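Standup, Tuesday
Yesterday: got the pipeline producing structure tokens again.
Today: sanity-check two examples.
Blockers: none.

Example 1:
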Amino acid sequence: MDSEAEIKFNRAYEMYFVMLYKIAFLYTGSRDDSEDILQEVFMKYLYKSPSFKDNNHEKAGCRKRFLIITLKLSKE
């Protein structure tokens, strides 16, 4: 992973981990399941990260994408 991609990933992880974990835990009631869900969410982001026009679009797009994936996995 190049340094720009690593910085982008770390920034997204720091911004969204707590919120997404709380959502996953709310649906699953399990720490282990919530951690597994978040691992899958961030792995998808790492390998399928979309490109955005600018930083504002990136924040909105990532947040929406993270929420959709987390909710979908939490309901399985």
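Example 2:
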Amino acid sequence: MKFKYFLIAATLPVLFFAATACDDDDDDKVVIEQSDTTKTVMPENDGTVSYLTVTVKVNYPEEFKTVDAALLNGRTVKLAGTEATLTAETDEKGVATFSQVIPGEYSVSTSWTITAADYTAATEKQVSNNKYTVSGTLASEIISENAEKTVSLIVSEKSALVIGKVYNEGRKYTNGEGKSTNFDNGKYIEIFNNSDEDVEVAGLYIGLVEGNSTVAYKLGVDPKNIYMKQIFRIPEGTPALAPSKTLLIVNSAFNYTEYEDQDLSGADLEAKDTESKKPIQNNEQTKALSLVYTSMTTLTYMNLTQGGPCGVAIFSSDYDFEANLDQDVYADGKTSGNKQFPVPVETIIDAIEILKYKNDGSVDLEQKRFYDYIDAGEQHSDATTGRSGIVYVRKVDKEATKEAGRTILVDTNNSSNDFTASKTATIREY
């Protein structure tokens, strides 16, 4: 994700018919070919189900003055729910048809890449970036009656740097006495160079979004800023990042394999814990990640909250944070409590939204801090209290990787599409 973005509208005319619920046991699921352009993963029909039909039509915005069939045809749309996961491709009119939909709660998502030539031909605007990502989503949509919905899609420049992994969950391990014990020292972030050139990372910032129980500034209240509880800077002297290489940033650069975690002793940067009453162990041999701002003086390490919410962003700015630390603010309408620092949205290079999983089995989408043009989706752990051992890992773009002869990661500005939750992830590997 890069600085320039545009909005696109997609409408969803939806037709519904009565149906009964099905068992959601994965063992009963089969793959059904609905047509040449549709594939469904869903439970077997025991004869009691009356399927719904859902059509999704994507519309380019007014800026796209010339939209031919090539820009509309063959775009994959995904309809994902607890009872079924379906994908369908759009036809030459931009319509994707799902003919076997079970009533329930679904998310709708789509993303694709267009070239600079495509963009210029459609908009008559000259652009310099090589490729642009089109993406968008609707989350937690209840499909239960006739409806016509609109999803806002985003067109953004592909970024050189992306967040490759976030490990905020921590884990439990079995100690020598056979007891299950919490272990949080192994948390980390990886930044990945998705371009084909060396990229300078010194001077870039990492922001951790405020994680108050109530969002400090709900989306739309202040559309110019994202509010951070911590800001760190990658120090001068940090080497440029080579293509398809990672920058590993940790809280504690030691080998933690005996705790059923990973060997972080070779980390590039470490956030030093200097103020905690029981500080996290730090490695004097590992270069320090510079702390610029923290909402609480005792938090000098990366406060990657297990269980969420835990938003992470990388951004670039010439702003003198150290000289303006008094610019932090209380939550909207408050005069006390936690403070947070506003960071302009146009400075954000990439971000991932990790949300809290509620006891009722749903995701708390009201806790989103990032606008859709920054991250149109979210990730979450199914463990309500965290410490699941899950690492959020960006997926490999297999087609682009094969073409380039080096690892390239998926980047559609939608963490629901771009990331997967893994308990077997290995640092610096994708």
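Quick observation on example 2: The chain has a mean pLDDT of 84. The helical segments are 69-72, 116-123, 398-404, 415-418.
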